[in-house]
Amino acid sequence: MNTNTMHDEIRELNLAYLMLAQQMLRDDRAAAIYRLGIGEEVAEVLEGLSSAQVLRMANSNMLLCQFRFNDTMLVDLLSSHGRERGAAHLHAAILAAGRPVAHLA
């Protein structure tokens, strides 16, 4: 994948993420903060972004969203395909909820 294509893909992902995050925050702020793994301060900033600011942020060459897959147990639970899939996903949600939320530095 060439650099321009990769940058285009990152920009699209960033834009989709920012738009989804804003919609989630408008619909159910508490659930969005939990699902996105962000703090109140970050939620406030994201909610207050104008369309122009969202586009500028999306145009960054770094990924704005953060995956919570830095824990083998979490990955194993989320990828569970057995009969206990519901329970595994519940355990993954509990594990993820115990993680500290992101804050603006």
Automatic annotation (TrEMBL):
Gene3D superfamilies to which the protein is assigned, alphabetical: Flagellar transcriptional activator FlhD (1.10.4000.10)
Subcellular location as annotated: Cytoplasm
InterPro entries: Flagellar_FlhD (IPR023559), FlhD_sf (IPR036194)
Signal peptide positions on this chain: none
Pfam families assigned: FlhD (PF05247)
Highest taxon of source: Bacteria
Classification via SUPFAM superfamilies: Flagellar transcriptional activator FlhD
Keywords from the UniProt entry: Activator, Bacterial flagellum biogenesis, Cell projection, Cilium, Cytoplasm, Disulfide bond, DNA-binding, Flagellum, Transcription, Transcription regulation
Similarity comment: Belongs to the FlhD family.
Domain writeup: The C-terminal region contains a putative helix-turn-helix (HTH) motif, suggesting that this region may bind DNA.
Function summary: Functions in complex with FlhC as a master transcriptional regulator that regulates transcription of several flagellar and non-flagellar operons by binding to their promoter region. Activates expression of class 2 flagellar genes, including fliA, which is a flagellum-specific sigma factor that turns on the class 3 genes. Also regulates genes whose products function in a variety of physiological pathways.
Quaternary context: Homodimer; disulfide-linked. Forms a heterohexamer composed of two FlhC and four FlhD subunits. Each FlhC binds a FlhD dimer, forming a heterotrimer, and a hexamer assembles by dimerization of two heterotrimers.
Protein name: Flagellar transcriptional regulator FlhD
Organism of origin: Zoogloea oryzae
Top-level taxonomy: Bacteria, Pseudomonadati, Pseudomonadota, Betaproteobacteria, Rhodocyclales
